């Protein structure tokens, strides 16, 4: 017999990022879910990073007064209210029609950075306005230097102070789940996609009502964006020119090698974002959480290092800070939450992650996220 309390479970609430993912999987067409959730190849890289995060252990400490705890972090001179921000996401509004805008207003509310992808669904100008100055523009080198420079100039004119250059996509990774579903932008709707959309009417009707998701930075006078275009021509001399063009903060995202990080530091890059692109690029790549520790050792204690990839809970966030991050970013969990329950879902997940991070600090005998160091890791040397 099923126990009576089973009927009292609220299956639509978000208590973990796993809840958000489960709800998103129900709501989204398979094509869209697999675009968001998928990774390169057999998805080993993604799974291995998660395993490494799960294997890391945190050392509880007792009888410190931890009544008052703080999650704010200093990022390029701005004090955030939360210890995590929004990693850049292309075609974000596939998860829900206003997702970009919700992320921007979330960033403004919590004073955290919001990465705005070259391939964002809304224009970089709108994102700058909605985020009230919290947006960071993320540049994909397009293979054409003049059009990349034009985007950088647009970001400057729109008031951006931070540019993220993503460097781990010389060619777009092969993501078999996308290929099997026939994922293309703009959508090509054949019989299987038609059935997929028909079987997910909530998403399909709301997408119909709000119009097909677009690439907000392109079209008309801004030309077109080819998602799978090669960026293989990008090299160190391009970086040096971008450093000359951009006077604000320059972050280079998608770095997993200590040598690369050292070279970026020496070339005047203001921060490196350690990331495997969520395992979406190289299936045999090393777990980025391990790379973070090595890169921190290489660049020294004071150089700004950011981290994204595979963070799913407050404990994961603390583990990334313990491994050397000065700030961290999330992508998929935010998309799942918005796909599941719209802006309310984003607020619920935010509150879950903030609460989880805060009570993790309490367990570790700490009151401030800035006091997290590798001393909280059990057997730090062996991990
Ligand atoms: C649907 C989707 C689109 C993404 N688009 C971009 C992008 O346009 N630019 C970029 O630098 N990273 C992009 N990323 C990578 C994320 O910024 C982030 O590095 C990655 O998802 C790892 O974080 P996660 O494990 O929290 O998802 C994208 C990721 C996803 C899932």
Question: In words, what does this structure look like?
Answer:
The protein has 383 residues and is of the alpha/beta class. The chain has one domain (4-382): Aldolase class I (TIM Barrel, Alpha-Beta Barrel), CATH 3.20.20. Helix content is 42%, strand content 10%. Strands 3-10-9-8-7-6-5-4 form an eight-stranded parallel β-sheet. Strands 1-2 form a two-stranded antiparallel sheet. Strand 5, helix 6 (145-157) and strand 6 form a beta-alpha-beta unit. Helix 4 packs parallel to helix 5 (124-130). The mean pLDDT is 94. The protein binds flavin mononucleotide. Flavin mononucleotide is lined by residues 35-36, 87-90, 117, 119, 138, 166, 253, 275, 277-278, 308-311, 330-332.
The gist of it:
The protein is α/β, with parallel strands linked by helices and 383 residues long. It has helices spanning 17-27, 30-37, 44-55, 99-110, 124-130, 145-157, 176-181, 191-198, 201-210, 236-245, 258-266, 288-299, 314-322, 332-363, and strands at residues 74-75, 78-79, 84-86, 114-116, 135-139, 162-166, 249-255, 271-274, 305-308, 327-330.
């Amino acid at each position: 017999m099923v126990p009576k309390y089973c009927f009292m479970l609220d299956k639509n609430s978000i208590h973990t990022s796993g809840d958000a993912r489960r709800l998103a999987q129900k709501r989204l067409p398979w094509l869209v879910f697999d675009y968001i959730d998928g990774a390169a190849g057999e998805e080993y890289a993604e799974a291995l990073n998660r395993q490494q995060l799960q294997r890391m252990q945190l050392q509880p400490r007792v009888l410190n007064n931890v009544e008052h705890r703080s999650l704010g972090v200093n990022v390029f001179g701005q004090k955030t209210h939360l210890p995590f921000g929004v990693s850049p996401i292309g075609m974000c509004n596939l998860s829900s029609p206003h997702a970009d805008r919700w992320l921007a207003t979330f960033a403004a509310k919590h004073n955290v950075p919001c990465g705005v992808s070259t391939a964002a669904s809304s224009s970089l100008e709108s994102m700058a306005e909605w985020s009230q100055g919290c947006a960071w523009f993320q540049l994909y080198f397009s293979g054409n230097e003049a059009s990349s420079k034009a985007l950088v100039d647009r970001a400057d004119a729109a008031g951006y102070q931070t540019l993220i250059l993503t460097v781990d996509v010389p060619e777009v990774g092969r993501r078999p789940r996308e290929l099997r579903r026939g994922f293309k932008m703009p959508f090509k709707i054949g019989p299987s996609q038609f059935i997929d959309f028909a079987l997910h009417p909530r998403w399909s009707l709301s997408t119909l009502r709000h119009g097909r998701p677009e690439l907000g930075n392109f079209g008309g006078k801004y030309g077109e964006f080819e998602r799978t275009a090669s960026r293989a021509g990008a090299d160190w001399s391009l970086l040096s020119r971008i450093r000359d063009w951009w006077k604000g903060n320059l972050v280079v995202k998608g770095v997993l090698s200590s040598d690369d990080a050292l070279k970026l530091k020496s070339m005047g890059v203001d921060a490196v974002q350690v990331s495997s692109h969520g395992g979406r690029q190289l299936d045999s790549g090393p777990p980025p959480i391990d790379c973070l520790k090595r890169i921190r050792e290489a660049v020294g204690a004071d150089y700004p290092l950011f981290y994204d990839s595979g963070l799913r809970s407050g404990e994961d966030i603390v583990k990334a800070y313990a491994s050397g991050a000065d700030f961290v970013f999330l992508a998929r969990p935010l998309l799942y939450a918005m796909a599941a329950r719209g802006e309310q879902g984003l607020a619920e997940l935010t509150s879950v992650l903030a609460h989880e991070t805060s009570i993790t600090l309490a367990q570790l005998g700490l009151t401030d996220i800035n006091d997290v160091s590798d001393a909280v890791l059990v057997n730090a040397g062996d991990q």
